[in-house]
From TrEMBL:
The keyword Hydrolase applies. Part of the FGAM synthase complex composed of 1 PurL, 1 PurQ and 2 PurS subunits. Part of the phosphoribosylformylglycinamidine synthase complex involved in the purines biosynthetic pathway. Catalyzes the ATP-dependent conversion of formylglycinamide ribonucleotide (FGAR) and glutamine to yield formylglycinamidine ribonucleotide (FGAM) and glutamate. The FGAM synthase complex is composed of three subunits. PurQ produces an ammonia molecule by converting glutamine to glutamate. PurL transfers the ammonia molecule to FGAR to form FGAM in an ATP-dependent manner. This is Phosphoribosylformylglycinamidine synthase subunit PurQ. The active site is at 86 (nucleophile), 196, 198.
Length: 223
């Protein structure tokens, strides 16, 4: 499978994401710049983390209005897999491609530490490598990761299995409703998550619990 990584001014996890995809798939992803309106033919588009456009206005708000996001939306509508990590998640929410909103952490502090994630739904293209209910380690680094959705939306996404990851008990770093750490769209091809699986894929990182997300999204899991 071919993948692409979006690069925008202010993003800073693009190199980590490129390294993770290259190591896991054996093939370097193509990169996509903010002004691009023609996305190359790929199976997976990843929007990495960072501080796009300096987090001005709201995290992800400016990026969501760039031409490249419209092009990504069109690809997603055709079924291409799209994954947003941290700022990438915020961008997908701002673009209306995922439900809810990401607000300031309840601590009002930037939180950078390892948390534990529960794989709530393993029946997705991004989580097939895991068992349902499996607890994995994953680092977080953000100040606006507090997931919010109105009561009706929350009920719907919970009932539809769109809550893919939850912070495991006692590790919610930001006050997210229902401990939500990652959600998927109704169609099942757009995933957003606040934690950074690209930073836990090999022994040099101290573990490889994040690897399964990329292996799943790239269809590298043996059936
Ligand atoms: N690591 C990130 O992607 C950070 C996202 C965003 N700038 C925040 O702090 O919430």
């Amino acid at each position: 499978m071919k993948s692409a990584v979006v690069q925008l001014p202010g993003l800073n996890r693009d190199r980590d994401m490129i390294a993770a995809l290259t190591k896991i798939s054996g093939q370097a992803p193509v990169t996509i710049w903010q002004t691009e309106t023609e996305i190359p033919d790929v199976d997976l588009i990843v929007i990495p983390g960072g501080f796009s456009y300096g987090d001005y206005l709201r995290c992800g708000a400016i990026a969501a209005r760039m031409p490249v996001l419209q092009a990504i939306r069109e690809k997603a509508e055709k079924g291409v897999r799209v994954m947003g990590v941290c700022n990438g998640f915020q961008i997908l929410v701002e673009a209306g491609m995922l439900p809810g909103a990401l607000m300031r952490n309840t601590s009002l502090k930037f939180v950078c530490r390892e948390i534990k994630l529960e794989v709530v739904n393993n029946q997705t293209s991004f989580t097939a490598a895991y068992d349902k209910g499996q607890i994995i380690r994953c680092p977080v680094a953000h100040h606006d990761g507090n997931y919010f959705a109105d009561a009706e939306t929350l009920k719907q996404i919970e009932a539809n299995g769109q809550v893919v990851f939850r912070y495991a008990q006692g590790t919610n770093p930001n006050g997210s409703l229902n401990d939500i750490a990652g959600v998927i769209n109704e169609k099942g091809n757009v995933l957003g998550m606040m934690p950074h699986p690209e930073n836990l894929i090999e022994a040099a990182h101290g573990g490889s619990d994040g690897r399964g997300i990329f292996a799943s999204a790239l269809d590298l899991i043996a059936a």
